[in-house]
Design goal:
Helices cover about 50% and strands about 10% of the residues. By secondary structure, the chain is mainly alpha-helical. The chain is built from 14 helices and six strands. Strands 1-2-3 form a three-stranded antiparallel sheet, covered by helices on one side. The termini are far apart. It folds into three domains: about 5-95, no CATH class; about 105-215, DNA polymerase, domain 1 (Orthogonal Bundle), CATH 1.10.150; about 225-385, hpI Integrase, Chain A. Strand 1 and strand 2 form a beta hairpin.
Amino acid sequence: MRASSYKIPRIIRAKSGDWRVVYEYEIPGQIGAFKKFYVRDGINYIHDLQEKEIAAQELRDDIEEALKSGYNPFLAEIRTESKIFAEETEIKLNKEQSLPDAWNMKEAVENFIKYCQLKNLKDTTVKKYKSQTNTLLKWFTENEIDMKACEVDEDIILDFLEQYNEKFSWSARTYNNYIDGIVTLFTRLPRLERRRNKEIKYNIDLGYLEDKNAIAEKNRYYAPKVAELIKKEIKKDIELYRYVRWIFYSCMRPNEIRHLQIMHIDLDARQIKVAGGLGKTGDRFVPISNELFSLIKEMEVDKMPLDYYVFGSGKRPSPKKTFNEYFREKYRPIKVKLGLDKNYTLYSWKHTRVVSLITAGFDDNQVMTLTGHRDRTAFEAYKRDLVIDNSVMKGKTIDF
């Protein structure tokens, strides 16, 4: 009887923290010769050793089950290039289909918490995960994001971290704890959900969250040269061009703009009302600068019905809001083309506006009317994240 074409997977627990599962598979055409394959699948993003051990064991079991079912890594390599188009098409179809059997975020979180309890994790750990996942669900509700858990991508997570970090002025420790919790959640969910539905596929990449020291990058802005390159690209799409300019001139958040109706724009008083449920600190009013005034006229917003949304589901204001991902999906190919990482977002245009105004000499109190900060301490912290200081070491110092 011929020996098995593979050797049982095992866990390697390196002292450096680089854990992985290794298995060996017989090389095609070379009987008795095996090649080693190493799989990490996100387990090194988990820092709690007990949870990391559980994740590593599950990964090992998943790989062994796949091998028993006939998985051949060499065939997978051969098929990789030909599968790219099929996989991209499948992802696109998944977004378009309702995925009725897939967990929504609430179901996913409930099953994750139940799993943590069954694994007898520490009560404090389970309590922490409950708090973090409830906060994540709250953010989804506030932003009217109705997605299956398997559809959530890294840009969604970055938006959550960025918005809530600014809204609640998280400490570095709190921010890092949320990163750890989210990584654990989305490392675990694919395995939990695939136990009941083998067809479910998650396409989230949390590798960009690995650097815990880059907290200030949450407020990354576009330097002038980068901004000019992006402007050149977005001018090709008038709808996207208007949307980015609106963020820049108003400093409103994407979610605030999405919910903005024409009835909230007062051209006589030159101000826009942002509803309390969408802003950081209750109702606030955004001043309409000359540039924003011109954009409003350009879009003929003042000629539309009051209940229309400024950025509706068409090329012009309409009675229906655009879906949450609309402009992000338009913007993503431009970031890819220019080689910009995930810290550069549509929301970064707000930060770019702030930097531009302050470096041009506008007073902090004036800028705060745009950003929505009512607390000077919070605004100073926001400026530090952007590394804005017009006075220190930027003029003549001492020559060599």
